[in-house]
Automatic annotation (TrEMBL):
<feature type="transmembrane region" description="Helical">
    <location>
        <begin position="119"/>
        <end position="136"/>
    </location>
</feature>
<feature type="transmembrane region" description="Helical">
    <location>
        <begin position="478"/>
        <end position="496"/>
    </location>
</feature>
<feature type="transmembrane region" description="Helical">
    <location>
        <begin position="574"/>
        <end position="592"/>
    </location>
</feature>
<feature type="transmembrane region" description="Helical">
    <location>
        <begin position="346"/>
        <end position="370"/>
    </location>
</feature>
<keyword id="KW-0813">Transport</keyword>
<dbReference type="Pfam" id="PF03030">
    <property type="entry name" value="H_PPase"/>
</dbReference>
<dbReference type="GO" id="GO:0004427">
    <property type="term" value="F:inorganic diphosphate phosphatase activity"/>
</dbReference>
<dbReference type="InterPro" id="IPR004131">
    <property type="entry name" value="PPase-energised_H-pump"/>
</dbReference>
<dbReference type="GO" id="GO:0009678">
    <property type="term" value="F:diphosphate hydrolysis-driven proton transmembrane transporter activity"/>
</dbReference>
<feature type="transmembrane region" description="Helical">
    <location>
        <begin position="390"/>
        <end position="411"/>
    </location>
</feature>
<feature type="transmembrane region" description="Helical">
    <location>
        <begin position="244"/>
        <end position="262"/>
    </location>
</feature>
<protein>
    <recommendedName>
        <fullName>H(+)-exporting diphosphatase</fullName>
        <ecNumber>7.1.3.1</ecNumber>
    </recommendedName>
</protein>
<dbReference type="GO" id="GO:0012505">
    <property type="term" value="C:endomembrane system"/>
</dbReference>
<keyword id="KW-1278">Translocase</keyword>
<feature type="transmembrane region" description="Helical">
    <location>
        <begin position="613"/>
        <end position="631"/>
    </location>
</feature>
<feature type="transmembrane region" description="Helical">
    <location>
        <begin position="418"/>
        <end position="439"/>
    </location>
</feature>
<keyword id="KW-0812">Transmembrane</keyword>
Length: 712
């Protein structure tokens, strides 16, 4: 092949073996996996059983609820292993498909290794900063009375932070790991059946979803149980169980820290590669999307994995962890104020809800089955309708399990009917989740009017297309905001009227009602994440089919899957934004509770008439636009580098267009990887440093003016 390339004696591309540059130098596995793989299997098995024994022993000493959570999470991990084996047992197709898949895999794993190496160094540095801050930070009166020392609080927070960061990183790696192995198997299955290709993509996404949600739940449960046993919670002279959730905030912060940079780096990568590839390939050269002649096509396909799989896994992991911890804090605070006899049910309720999420989402994933008699000649079913049926089944099961959980854990003699009000709060959250999925589907699915109107605007030129697209995007924010506002008010009212009151007779269940609504919205998170992972896997499968020049009938199947995948990715973005909006309300409420504990006085409302508070709100609003501007600039600069490189290759290698020369795919991958890692630092630092900077005391400007005029 190389001799033919040098002599220029190449026949038509379709008549030759299609080979692509193998960028693989050495298979990459994270350090923790390399260590485990180096241990003897029997020794590893013994260590695993010992670890499980310790975990269940600690759980049994804490609460039977924790044992239930551990059991469900471990079963979900076993189920995810089955899904992995099932997906990997499918064939990878012809050699040309495998070579393209290997190139995508190596590019994704190389970027992941570099990106998460950078993130881990920053996380260790931040852990030292947190340790320093907590060593000099005052304890709450409850912590002081329980005998908790500053050093203990500091090391607990740092350990939780590092564990959250580690679990978030593993969640991202799992999402990327499965997508780069499932894409070629979906491509191969598309040669036989659309339903089989759909089933493989869904089960591959299901593996990632079960691991991400399961890790978020079991990580918090292990921390809670460990601290409970180690600190002797609820024993004489020790910490009360209602104060224990405050020690878990480091876990959520670690998850948020990794998710921030994973989203930034992965987002810059995928969008810059996509823009660069399309501007030169589709617009200037007039070649199809994912055409093998485009030097940036591998970088584009790699971006789907690092941006839409790894980053989304870390992002949803962070959302779930933050929601669980904030709900546990609010549950403990409410139980303390209401003098509830056994507050463990209110505190551990979020863990149980997400444990049931693993169960019902597994049922939804397995409800999507292949048809043994399906063939290419049969009409292609609507994949979105199939996924929607699975989601509807998951929703029904979620309503049932949520009602059972509230009756089991939230029943109290102080307010016998309170559990029913909280069950209705959960129903509000579930309806909110379904509404978000429907709204996003309406605005992004090609079968509905908004997308068709946008397509019609494209017939009159680029300008009208941009105007229509921007207006459609702005319009699409209205319904979600209305739905979120209605759900917050409804859930707060239901919680407020639940009958739970403090020692002065004031209702206290409102904030916990919104927490329960957030749990309801995230009670199907694993299935939503499954649909999200389905998107980039289907997108990659379409690229592999196009690059390996498969028959048009195969490309037709992957095109349909890809179109639906774009909708499911948008659905998850909308779902994540909605859940983040509810979770932010919880986090703010949990923050107010912690401030009240430190100040030893009630902190019920924020007065916006105070100048510092008003300015803080303005600065917070400004940061959103500044952060977005820096992120967009980063994408633009990186895309310019890709455009220049692709143009250079087309000029210096004119044989690329005639299939006489190979594009240098690796060069574009390297450019996007290095640029995205460089560009993610500035906006990420803005998000971390700005709250600290705003939190410093405001100087006395009158004193400064007097000093300057005196010493003038």
């Amino acid at each position: 092949m190389d001799d033919e390339l040098e002599n220029g004696n190449l026949g038509p591309y379709a008549d030759r073996p299609r080979t692509f540059p193998n960028m693989r130098s050495k298979a990459y596995n994270p350090l923790i996996f390399r260590i485990l793989m180096g241990i003897n299997f029997r020794v590893l098995l013994i260590l695993l059983f010992l670890g499980l024994g310790v975990v269940f022993y600690i759980g049994a000493r804490t609460s039977p609820i924790i044992v239930f959570v551990f059991s469900v999470c471990i079963m979900s991990f076993l189920l995810s292993i089955y899904l992995t084996k099932w997906v990997l047992s499918k064939d990878e197709g012809p050699p040309e498909m495998v070579q393209i898949s290997d190139a995508i895999r190596d590019g994704a794993e190389g970027f992941f290794r570099t990106q998460y190496g950078t993130i881990s160094k920053m996380a260790l540095l931040l852990a030292l900063v947190i340790l320093f801050i907590y060593l000099f930070r005052n304890l709450t009166p409850q912590q002081e009375s329980s005998g908790l020392r500053r050093s203990t609080s500091a090391f607990i927070t740092v350990a939780a932070f590092l564990l959250g960061a580690l679990c978030s990183g593993i969640a991202g790696y799992v999402g990327m790991w499965v997508s780069v192995r499932a894409n070629v198997r979906v491509s191969s299955a598309a040669r036989r059946s659309a339903r089989e290709a759909l089933q493989i993509a869904v089960r591959a996404g299901g593996f990632s979803a079960l691991v991400v949600v399961g890790m978020a739940v079991i990580g918090i449960a292990i921390l809670y149980a460990t601290f409970y046993v180690w600190l002797g919670v609820d024993s004489q002279g020790s910490m009360k169980v209602t104060d224990l959730p405050l020690l878990l905030v480091g876990y959520g912060f670690g998850a948020s820290f990794v998710a921030l940079f994973a989203q930034l780096g992965g987002g810059i990568y995928t969008k810059a590669a996509d823009v660069g590839a399309d501007l030169v390939g589709k617009v200037e050269q007039g070649i199809p999307e994912d055409d093998p002649r485009n030097p940036a096509v591998i970088a584009d396909l790699v971006g789907d994995n690092v941006g839409d799989c790894a980053a989304r896994g870390a992002d949803l992991f962070e959302s779930i962890a933050a929601e669980i911890i904030s709900a546990m804090i609010l549950g403990g605070t409410m139980a303390r104020h209401c003098k509830i006899e056994d507050p463990s049910g209110f505190i551990l309720f979020p863990l149980v809800i997400h444990s049931f999420d693993l169960v019902i989402s597994s049922v939804g994933i397995f409800s999507i089955r292949g048809k043994p008699d399906s063939s290419l000649k049969s009409p292609i079913e609507d994949p979105m309708a199939i996924l929607q049926k699975g989601y509807s089944l998951t929703i029904v099961l979620s309503v049932l399990t949520f009602g059972l959980s509230t009756r089991w854990l939230l029943y109290t003699e102080r307010a016998p009917s309170a559990w029913f009000n909280f069950a209705l709060c959960g129903l509000v959250g579930i309806i909110t989740a379904y509404a978000f999925v429907w709204i996003t589907k309406y605005y992004t699915d090609y079968k509905h009017e908004p997308v068709r109107t946008l397509a019609l605007a494209s017939t009159t030129g680029h300008g009208t297309n941009i105007i229509a697209g921007v207006s459609l995007g702005l319009e699409s924010t209205a319904l979600p905001v209305l739905v979120i506002s209605l759900s917050i008010v409804s859930a707060f009212w239901l919680g407020h009227t639940s009958g739970l009151v403090d020692k002065d007779g004031n209702p206290t269940g409102g904030l916990f009602g919104t927490a329960v609504a957030t749990m309801g919205m995230l009670s199907t998170a694993a299935y939503i994440l499954t649909m999200d992972m389905f998107g980039p896997i289907a997108d990659n499968a379409g690229g592999i089919v196009e690059m390996s020049q498969q028959p048009e009938s195969v490309r037709e199947i992957t095109d349909v899957l890809d179109a639906v995948g774009n909708t499911t990715k948008a659905t998850t973005k909308g779902f994540a934004i909605g859940s983040a909006a509810l979770a932010s309300f919880l986090l703010f409420s949990a923050y107010m509770d912690e401030v009240a504990a430190f100040a030893q006085e009630p902190f019920k409302q924020v007065d916006i008439a105070i100048p510092e508070v008003f300015v803080g709100g303005l600065l917070g609003s400004m940061l959103i636009f500044l952060f977005s501007a820096w992120a967009c600039s980063a994408v633009g600069r990186t895309a310019q580098e890709v455009v220049n490189e692709v143009r250079r290759q087309f000029i210096e290698r004119p044989g690329i267009m005639d299939y006489k020369e190979k594009p240098d795919y690796g060069r574009c991958v390297a450019i996007v990887a290095s640029a995205s890692l460089r560009e993610m630092i500035k906006p990420g630092a803005l998000a971390i440093v700005s709250p600290i900077a705003v939190g410093f005391p405001v100087p006395d400007f009158g004193l400064l003016y007097w000093a300057s005029s005196t010493w003038g």
